[in-house]
UniProtKB/TrEMBL annotation:
Keyword terms of this UniProt record: Kinase, Transferase
Main EC class the enzyme belongs to: transferase
Keyword Kinase: yes
Natural source organism: Castellaniella denitrificans
Domain of life assignment: Bacteria
Protein name per UniProt: hydroxymethylpyrimidine kinase
Pyridoxamine kinase/Phosphomethylpyrimidine kinase domain location: 12-263
Length: 274
């Protein structure tokens, strides 16, 4: 069965991040992508120049209308922007109870612009994280969630993963996917932790400026893969390997003059001729 996968996130008009990147990712990985719009941005590959919120009640209406008709096999949550939207998303997903929920706690854009109100962090930590199957923070986001400085070495990353796991519910299979891309050096080691197992996912840094939307893309890939994967670690390995290839192929695109997008359709589109 082809999985139906939903992104609840913001709109990046450049298509490198947000729901546009999510639906591309889901489509590329063989899932049927859907989207609930939680925030609007004026954004390109260089900067976020404006954010316009979506009323929380309309976000709730989008979620309820979709779930009332469509089988939703997995949900990915990205940029929510406001505390009110964060609370209403948590409320509606607690009601509908999707089988797989991947939470990417989006806080800052690649350009450095802030995408989440500070008061929304509490709503995220207390309302949404306990519902998640997998959370996918990077090191700065993990630091904000835990109220501490970001980890800068693998030893501290392990401690952070353990602390983050305590924010998740105790029932069922629930995982922290802690991304190590902000560590110094050429290694990009990610950690998976379910409270028992601690799994390292090795990787090497790819020399490219085209990394806009990598967090969105990874979490959307997890949502696309989880309904058909034997377990979370297998989905995570597949998602990371696929993203690495998308980053490596990003130079085939010519989108903007800043941090360009990854190539979501690297395995499907013909390679441009030199």
């Amino acid at each position: 069965m082809i999985p139906n996968t939903l992104s609840i996130a913001g709109v990046d008009p450049s298509g490198g991040a947000g729901v546009l990147a999510d639906v591309k990712t889901m489509s590329a990985l063989g899932a049927y992508g859907m989207a609930v719009i939680a925030a609007l941005t004026a954004q390109n590959t260089r900067a976020v120049t404006g954010i316009s919120p979506v009323p929380p009640e309309f976000v709730a209406a989008q979620i309820d209308t979709l779930f009332a008709d469509v089988r939703v096999d997995a949900v990915k949550i990205g940029m929510l922007g406001q505390a009110g939207v964060t609370r209403v998303v948590a409320d509606r997903l607690e009601y509908w109870k999707p089988a797989h929920l991947v939470l990417d706690p989006v806080m800052v854009a690649k350009s450095g612009d802030h995408l989440l109100e500070r008061q929304a962090v509490v709503a995220l930590r207390e309302g949404l994280i306990p519902l998640a199957t997998v959370i996918t923070p990077n090191l700065p986001e993990a630091g904000v969630l835990l109220g501490q400085s970001p980890a800068d070495n693998l030893k501290d990353m392990r401690r952070v993963a353990e602390r983050l796991r305590r924010l998740l519910a105790d029932d069922g299979e629930r995982w922290v996917f802690l991304k190590g891309g902000h560590l110094p050096g050429d290694d990009t080691i990610d950690l998976l932790h379910d409270g028992d197992r601690l799994i390292e996912l090795p990787g090497r840094r790819i020399d490219t400026p085209n990394t806009h939307g990598t967090g969105c893309t990874l979490s959307a890939a997890m949502a696309a893969l989880l309904p058909r994967a034997p377990d979370v670690p297998e989905a995570a390995r597949h998602a990371k390997a696929w993203l690495e290839r998308a980053i490596a192929a990003a130079g085939q695109l010519q989108v903007g003059s800043g941090h360009g997008p990854v190539h979501h359709f690297h395995a499907l589109w013909p390679k441009p001729q030199d």
